[in-house]
Amino acid sequence: MGAEKRWLFTLFSITLFSILLILLYSISAFSSPRAFPSPVQHGLHYPPAFGYYLFGGKGDKDRIFRLLLAVYHPRNRYLLQLGADASNVERYSLALALKSVPAIRSFENVDVTGKPDRFSSMGSTRIAATLRAASMLMKLDRGWDWFIALSALDYPMVTQDDLSYVFSSVRRDLNFLDHTSDLGWKVEQRIEPIVVDPGLYLARRTKFFHSTHKRPMPEAFKVFTGKVYSSPWVVLSRSFLQLCLFGWDNLPPTLVMYFNNVMSSEESYFHSVICNSPEFKNTTVNGDLRYMIWDSPPKKEPHFLDISDYDQMASSGAAFARPFPKDDSLLDMVDKKILKHGRNRAASGTWCTGRQSWWADPCSQWGDVNVLKPGPQAKKFEETMINLLDDWKSQSNQCT
Q1: How many CB atoms within 10 Å of residue 279?
Q2: pTM of the full predicted structure?
Q3: Residue 47 exposure: Cα atoms within 13 Å on the Cβ side
Q4: How do beta strands 209-214 and 234-237 pair?
Q5: Mind listing the pLDDT tens digit for each residue in 254-264?
Q6: Which segments within the chain are labelled E, that is strand?
């Protein structure tokens, strides 16, 4: 196929996709999702809300859209990002797909970033991307209480009603991250070697620069990291992220400069900032709320989950699990048994009042979005939360 034919095929595909979405938009408009009877309410007297940062790379448009629907709730705020390696067509298609969801159109609580800076999952540019996303979410919405970053490989194990219900009994300044100061092999292989993430300076180069020299461990602060091989996954309070972004005690920018030259720095940056901060070091709950299966001895990444892992995963009491293969049957099982929703529809919650049928989306109509009704998974997640908080309360200093 010549260049001209490929261009025409791409144009035809985009046009056809746009027409289908417009038809879906028109059909859902006839169903006239009624105006919500009460506005979204935030504050200590209402259930907590979450600021979600959902990110992926080239070819992840459909995975990000599916993940969004799985974690969607009108009370939350969402920022979607496809990496610099994704095409503008993918970004446009993702933004257009949001128009097919009645609740997203009405509540206007989902945004898609433009073309971002290039970043590496192993470099400090990943920290920059996460901090930038948190900053954007703060500007877009003042109501969310916790920040959650999910990649295209992640999926929820609870509904948003479950999540918000369990977090309703949690102090809103607490932070959830797997952390330790026992660095072990990471000192020699991760912390002391000096590297340069090319994404900080160059648009195209992706290979890391490695110095022939090493540097000693810092004396001005103590380095913390995740207990397992790779633990960048966190649930962070809004108040702590304000410290990271505005750095009123100069600690966050100091650590940003230090970790610019550390491999896999996101496994240590937030952990080190919070555990060296007198104001926040006792707000650290030692758990990341994720379900993962690591080989023994552990490899760089946990192994991909499959259908044989469902029972153990569902009973784990985790809020999220990873990693999942694209469009795997395990995801379909989670949708059916836990999230109770169909393809291209938002996961059902108490806020959804429409009729359930194969042609109608129950979340195309809604009632009071500030009311929660937890399901069976909430009890398992609540047990996990109680155990984590008991451990937190029993420690005089959580950062050890």
Answers
A1: 14
A2: 0.88
A3: 22
A4: unpaired
A5: 999 898 888 88
A6: 50-56, 77-82, 110-112, 146-151, 155-156, 175-177, 193-196, 209-214, 234-237, 284-285, 290-291, 320-321
